[in-house]
């Protein structure tokens, strides 16, 4: 079961535990036990999330691989200064 969970997360990225259980055809209780074990070992990073989809509150655990950080947001980052190529020297 560990290999199937890790393989699923490698292929699909960050997922909710409910979605993983449905896709892998694993009972949610068994999946949560295995996810807790993998998180304690350090293979996964998990956090509790609440999402609202069509006005319905969905609570679950979001999981991702610990070696797979989220991609940085596009655009300029705070604190990064634009380099000035037109340096002038005064004599």
- Morphology: elongated
N/C terminus separation: 72 Å
Oligomer: single chain
Overall pLDDT confidence: 85
Unreliable stretches:
none
Structural class: alpha+beta
**Share of β-strand residues:** 15-25%
Sheet with the most strands?
A: 3 strands, antiparallel
Q: How many strands?
A: 3
Which radius of gyration do the C-alpha atoms yield? Answer: 21 Å
Count of DSSP H/I helices: 3
Helix content: 25-40%
- SSE topology string: HEHHEE
**Strand order in the sheet with the most strands:** 1-3-2
Element layout with pairings:
Layout: H1 2-12, E1 15-16, H2 17-24, H3 28-41, E2 44-53, E3 56-65
Antiparallel strand pairs: 1-3, 2-3
Structural commentary:
This protein is an alpha+beta fold and 91 residues long. It is built from three helices and three strands; from the N terminus they run αβααββ. It has helices at residues 2-12, 17-24, 28-41; strands at 15-16, 44-53, 56-65. Strands 1-3-2 form a three-stranded antiparallel sheet. Helix 2 packs across helix 3. The model has no long low-confidence stretch (mean pLDDT 85).
List keywords for this structure.
91 residues, alpha+beta, 3 helices, single chain
In short:
The chain is of the alpha+beta class.
